[in-house]
């Protein structure tokens, strides 16, 4: 495809001045690479080859999430970040929050019009409002920067900066995912998303019981001393905070890697000790770089393999599924473009950093978050989430190419 497009399109100055067809080439090639690797994963998981069965894909997903992705984030973010840059990049996490708020508002409007079947109203809002701000943008940036004719200049700097910007916003996305999304996807009063099973006994009804009915601490004898009473209240508050924020779910390996990279990168002495090429501990960073390079192909093979199961048996129906796809891929990106444009006009973004703006725009353009599907599975509506993820990612290969063409034309 690359040679075919190159024959048709004269490539101009890599830093700018691209024709419309040249911009289309730059935008389509990363999507084509992603689609090709996903198709290979799909083929490996098919019954004709069966190298990636469900158990193998689960292990591969675990390897990516627990080791390869944290290594990529740690090495790239740690090398790029400084204390001054963190203060300069403050709008990246703010953009994630604004994107979740605006996306949820759009999701509420769409769900109010379409009226999804009960009890999937909040589910529809989440599927529209929460996009993939981590894995898919990292893949796209890697595929885009690998091309020497990319409009952002040097391939290595393009990849390092893009990965650092994306990684810097992931910790906010995790907090949103395991607080807001987790609570929005709570089962209905019947205790299950599948009402026909509501008469079945629940194994753990206390998990979704009202907060006032859930004991945060075991009942103990009333303390005789005032100090003991104060200690008991502090302990109860900490348990309440842990219960509400789901800290164990928030502190996942990629988030720990992001926090560690920001901490070490912000302290000049530690940064020189670990992240510079002549540092005594650079061997550790270099090992993380090598492992991180394996993240992109592994996650795409796993994603393609997961599509082998198809849309599954969803209760959403065609109308609701189509509305979710339209809302996520067509309605959300223009609002995101307005948010980023306004922030640029107000001087909130670093002047002249086009990769920074491009990453902000990508955060509003991605398909539904894969991790929101994991939370949905945990809350009991995994079949519907799998169906939405299947169709959204299929149509996203088209929509993302179109939006990237628009963004590159606006930026260059």
From TrEMBL:
PANTHER family: PROTEIN PIN-LIKES 2 (PTHR31419), PROTEIN PIN-LIKES 6 (PTHR31419:SF1). It is found in: Membrane. Signal peptide: none annotated. It comes from the Eukaryota. GO terms for biological process: auxin-activated signaling pathway; endoplasmic reticulum to cytosol auxin transport. Coiled coil: none annotated. This is PROTEIN PIN-LIKES 6. One of its GO terms (cellular component) is membrane. Its main location: membrane. The chain crosses the membrane at residues 20-46, 58-77, 89-111, 123-144, 164-182, 250-270, 282-308, 320-343, 355-376, 388-410. Keywords: Auxin signaling pathway, Membrane, Transmembrane, Transmembrane helix. The keyword Membrane applies. It is a multi-pass membrane protein.
């Amino acid at each position: 495809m690359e040679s075919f497009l190159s024959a048709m399109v004269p490539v101009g100055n890599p830093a700018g001045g691209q024709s419309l067809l040249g911009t289309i080439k730059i935008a389509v090639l990363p999507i084509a690479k992603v689609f090709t690797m996903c198709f290979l994963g799909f083929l490996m998981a098919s019954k004709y080859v069966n190298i990636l069965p469900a158990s193998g894909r689960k292990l591969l997903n675990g390897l990516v999430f627990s080791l390869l992705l944290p290594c990529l984030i740690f090495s790239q973010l740690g090398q790029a970040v400084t204390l001054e840059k963190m203060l300069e990049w403050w709008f990246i996490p703010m953009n994630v929050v604004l994107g979740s708020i605006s996306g949820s508002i759009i999701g509420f409007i769409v769900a109010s019009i379409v009226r999804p079947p009960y009890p999937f109203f909040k589910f529809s809002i989440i599927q529209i409002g929460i996009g993939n701000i981590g894995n898919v943008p990292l893949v796209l940036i890697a595929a885009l920067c690998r091309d020497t004719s990319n409009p952002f200049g040097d391939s290595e700097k393009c990849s390092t900066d893009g990965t650092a910007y994306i990684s810097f916003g992931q910790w906010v996305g995790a907090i949103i995912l395991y607080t807001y999304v987790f609570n929005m996807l709570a089962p209905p009063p019947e205790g299950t998303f599948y009402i026909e099973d509501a008469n079945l006994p629940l194994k753990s009804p206390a998990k979704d019981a009202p907060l006032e009915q859930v004991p945060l601490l075991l009942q103990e004898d009333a303390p005789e001393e005032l100090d003991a009473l104060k200690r008991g209240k502090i302990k109860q508050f900490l348990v309440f905070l842990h219960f509400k924020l789901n800290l164990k779910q928030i502190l996942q390996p990629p988030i720990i890697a992001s926090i560690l990279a920001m901490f070490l990168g912000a302290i000049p002495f530690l940064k020189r000790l670990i992240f510079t090429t002549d540092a005594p501990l650079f061997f550790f960073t270099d090992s993380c770089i090598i492992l991180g390079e394996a993240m992109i192909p592994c996650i795409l093979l796993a994603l393609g393999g997961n599509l082998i199961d198809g849309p599954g048996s969803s209760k959403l129906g065609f109308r609701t599924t189509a509305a979710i796809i339209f809302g996520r891929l067509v309605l959300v990106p223009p609002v995101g473009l307005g948010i980023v444009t306004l922030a640029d006009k107000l001087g909130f973004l670093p002047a002249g950093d086009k990769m920074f703006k491009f990453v902000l725009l990508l955060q509003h353009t991605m398909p539904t978050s894969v991790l929101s599907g994991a939370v949905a599975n945990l809350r009991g509506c995994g079949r519907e989430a799998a169906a939405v993820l299947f169709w959204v990612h299929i149509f996203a290969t088209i929509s993302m190419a179109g939006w990237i063409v628009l963004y590159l034309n606006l930026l260059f």
